[in-house]
Amino acid sequence: MTLALEVEYLTGIAYASAGLGSDAPDWPPQPDRIFSALVAAWAARGQSQNEASALEWLERLPPPLLLASDFSPRTSHVSFVPPNDPSSTKGKHAAEVFPGMRRRQPRSFPAACPEDPVVHLFWPDTDVDDATFSALDALAVDTAYVGHSASLTRCKFRRSDACTPPKACRNAVRAVYPGRFAELQAAFKAGRRPNPGAVIAPVPRSPIEAPGTIFSTDWLLLEHVDGEMPDLRAAAMVAKAIRDKLVSAYEEIGLRGQVPETVSGLTSEGTPLRAPHLAIVPLSFTGFPHSDGRVLGFGLVPPRGNWILKDANFLSAFRHLAPLDSEVGRRILRIDGAERGGPGFTIGLAPTSDPSLSSLNPTLYITLNGHPTRTFATVTPIVLDRHLKEHGAEREAEIAKQIGDACRNIGLPEPETIEISGGGRLAAFPDKHSAIEGAPPAEPSGKSPRWLRWRLPPSLSGRALTHAVVRFAEPVQGPVILGAGRYLGLGLCRPIRDPEGVA
């Protein structure tokens, strides 16, 4: 059975903004916006317990498919409106309370003019009992608007055994989740705007026919928005602080002892997890002309085939850590490096599915111009799994062997060669300098200050670091993250053009 909701915009215009401060209209209406409208109808109808149960049932469903036409943005002029009345005693007696002296703030009202004013939401393979369906449909009938009160609507739930969602349906961008109904009520009682719904990661493209690694190509991106970001050499410490923050969030929301091993990287006994788990990698301004190595954000990279980033408990923990900042209209994750005795930094990271900077695009680390490639170069140096024992040529061979083992550890074949970075010849000899423009060297020169050394967590301290260019016999696809520090973003590689011109 398919459950469907039909929403018709009676004036042919949908007033809604894509976000606080945005001039772009939000089209098609996302499930979180429509669910909020149903909750508003529930409150206006008397807050029936049967209808509340129906809304709690609806919020547990998977995100629906959307069928909506294209639209044209309506020209929106800027209006200047007075702010809210002051709440303080001083403000109430200020001169600005007089109509002629009140301040005016600019405000625009983004709107979409759809080609077809009717939108459909489909929940395929969903069985709904008569009582729940009747309650939902009663709420829909009394939903007079969706979003802005000027967006007048007619809403109707339908169900059918024969209905199949059309192929033209698109996936939702934001969705509701278990607990959203209670969250909306709490926000209303507190007199604040509700947070947007959960951002849904984009559907991955068709898989590329090439060997891959244990790491997924679907990342959660965290864009740096405020605070002074530490140097790339300290990225592993920031990554560790992010992981610690995620782990602590489970306890803060009442899930003590339920932190997934995939997130913590530890077994139930507290020992390091050998199975693949969540990697946290720095996304830096590297590999482009005039790159300077600045860290622009981080990527949360789950193991391939693991859905931890969509897990309900993970999303609840993440939403707890990253509340909505009303000033910027985005969720902000605050990381304080000094909380657990780490380096002193305080930064703000905003989750995004549509990065504004090219350097935050995960495809830079997966394929070369959309195609698998044979050659990868390190952006951050590889932390060798074992301490080196040899010297001279034997030491170089020992390093090359460890890099080969690191490739096999993440599911890749044995490298054909390991190339000296920038040297122009092929050899089993990694160099301290990276082949990626803007990436810092693995080891500073002898007279360099100590702060130019890479900062490593205690579990990796004392290990040798090396940059490398790794070439395989056949094209492979990333992400390629090698060595003992791979889960903290060390050994992160980017695909590069083959020196012989073979992509």
Describe, in plain words, how this protein is organized in 3D:
The protein has about 500 residues and is of the alpha+beta class. It has three domains: about 1-75 and about 110-200, 2-Layer Sandwich (Alpha-Beta Plaits), CATH 3.30.70; about 220-355, no CATH class; about 365-495, no CATH class. It is elongated and about 80 Å long. It contains nine helices and 25 strands. The chain has helices at about 30-45, 50-60, 90, 130-140, 180-190, 235-250, 260-265, 310-320, 390-410; strands spanning about 1-10, 15, 65, 70-75, 80, 105, 110-115, 120-125, 155-160, 170, 175, 200, 220-225, 280-285, 295-300, 325, 330, 335, 345-350, 375-380, 380-385, 415-420, 465, 470-475, 495.
Write the layout of secondary structure elements.
Elements: E1 2-9, E2 14-15, H1 31-44, H2 49-59, E3 65-67, E4 71-73, E5 79-81, H3 89-92, E6 105-107, E7 111-114, E8 118-123, H4 130-141, E9 153-160, E10 170-171, E11 174-175, H5 180-189, E12 198-199, E13 220-226, H6 235-252, H7 261-264, E14 279-284, E15 295-301, H8 312-321, E16 324-325, E17 330-331, E18 333-336, E19 346-352, E20 373-378, E21 382-383, H9 392-409, E22 417-419, E23 465-466, E24 469-476, E25 493-496
Antiparallel strand pairs: 1-8, 1-9, 2-7, 3-8, 3-10, 4-7, 5-6, 11-12, 13-15, 13-19, 14-15, 16-17, 18-19, 20-24, 20-25, 21-23, 22-24
Helix pairs in contact: 1-2, 2-4, 6-8
